[in-house]
Structure formats: structure tokens, C-alpha cells
Amino acid sequence: MKQLTILQAIQSKESFNQEVCHRDHLGLEIQDFTEVNIFYENFADTLEYYLSLREKIKGPFALHGSFVHLTPYSYDQGIRQASMFKYRMSLNMAQLLRADYLIFHSQINPFVHNPLLIDLDRKETKRLFHELLEEFPSFKGMILLENIYEDDPKRLRDLIDVIDHPRVQVNLDLGHARLSKKATLDQWFEILGDRIRYSHIHWNNGEMDQHQTPSLEERKEILSLFQRHHCYVPLSLEYFPKDICKELVLYQKAIKEGGLDFAL
Fold first, then answer.
1. What is the pLDDT of residues 22-36, one digit of tens each?
2. How many CA atoms lie within 13 A of 65 on its CB side?
3. Which domain CATH number covers 237?
């Protein structure tokens, strides 16, 4: 029986649930630092708040990094500098908070088909993350690239393989993958394989990125996917539930009714 590790994803410190502190396999993903202008404003209170409770979190601790309009290898010097500032600040927050995981979007543009441009993007992304990990040696966690707009998991697989760093892997966003017209959810698992080290869990109608709460039957379907592909990674609930204890009860029910090989 495999241990199921769940993280409560929160968009701001006001949503933090103290119950996260009481279970070894219950973690926290914070998204406060994704707000587009936060690093130009006063974020010290937010950082101090999480520093004050960091020791209380027994399970995994994850931080979602900046992601809006980032192009760190842009030919435009201003865009490049602004993007690098956001990446560095996100890594600095992750380093100070001793995050186990730092999540960035892949920044893959599915409408770019020119092989020369795709190759350039991959090589520059490799340079970016190798340099950043050298620049922040006290960050001991893993950087995870999340599928966002890409329709084909092969693009993300190939990007991770070009980056070729053991601490740069994949956050499979299940809701985003469900929107794919080129690959089933099973194919996302099959193609990405053991590059998947973490997953965002939310649901939708297959047409829009709705971040819906999954039903009991959908929870069974989600957990069976992970079991079927022997992918036992932390699951972050990115539908932002307020009552994490209620969520644990519902996942326990899904495990029992679905005859699944998980323990909570």
C-alpha cells in the first residue's frame, strides 16, 4: 500500500489551515508570491508569516514561483532583465523558506513550430536553470516545470531532457492536461514517465481551465490514474479547498470505494 501525500494549495496566507501542521503526509503549497507586482511592493510581512510557521509543517512545503509574461532569454533587454528579476526573487523566497519544491510554468508556446526556435528555447532554458541553481546553492529543493498551454506532453518531455538536471523535473498539472486535444491523460503519464515528481489536482469540463473541485467519482478516476501508472508523487489540491480535513475524508472514501492501493 502506497502512502498518499496531499498538499493544501493556498493563494494567500489568509487561507492557511492550521490542520496542515498536524500530519506528516499533509503539506502546504503557497502561491502568495505569484502576484504579478508583489516583488515591487512590501512582501516582508508575507515572508515573515511563512518563516514563523515553517518549522510546524511536517509534510512537504512547496512554493509557486512567478509565471506571468516571463521570457528570460528575450532579445529585448528590458524584458530579459524583468524576467530574471522574478526568477531570482522566486528562488530567493524558496531558499529562505527551505521549500522542497519550487514550481515554474514551462513557458512552452504551442504555436511555435519552427525547429530552430524550439531548439533555441530549450537551450536557453537549460542555461537559465543551470545558472540559477548554481547562483542559489542553499536552495536544496527541486524545481518543477508545469504544463500550461502545451497540448502535447512530448514538448515538455523533450524540454526536461535537454535541461538534463536531476533537480529540474515536472509538475503534472492534471487539469491543464485534461484540456489537451492531442493526448489522453494516460498518455501524459506514459510520455512524461518518471519525470513527474509532483502534481496539481483540479478538474474541468474538458474545454476551459476551471479549477473545479473533483466529485467523488472524479477523485476515484484521478487516484486510479496515478496507481495505474505507478506514479506516487505529492498531490497539491489546486482547487484551493478551505477545509483540508474534509478533503482527507473524501479522498479516504474514494480510496475505499475504488479499491485503491493508497493509505492516508
1. 888 999 999 999 999
2. 30
3. 3.20.20.150
CB atoms within 10 A of CB 237: 20
* DSSP 3-state of 194: helix
Q: Are 203 and 195 in contact (CB under 8 A)?
A: no
- CA–CA separation, 53 and 35 (whole Å): 21
Give the model confidence (pLDDT) of 212-244 as tens digits.
999 999 999 999 999 999 999 999 999 999 999
Contacts of 121 (CB under 8 A, 6+ apart): 73, 107, 108, 109, 112, 159
Helix (H) or strand (E) holding 182: none
In the block, residue with C-alpha cell 512554493: 63
* Total domains in the fold of the chain: 1
Cβ-count burial 153-172 (b if 16+ within 10 Å, e if not):
bebbbbbbeebeeeebbbbb
DSSP notation for 202-233: -B--SSS---BPP-HHHHHHHHHHHHHTT---
How does DSSP classify residue 19?
G
CA distance 181 to 212: 19
Range of the domain at 183: 2-263
Cβ contacts of 117 within 8 Å, gap of 6 or more: none
Burial 13-35 (b: 16+ CB within 10 A, else e): eeebbeebeebebbbbbbbbbbe
DSSP 243: -
pLDDT at 13: 94
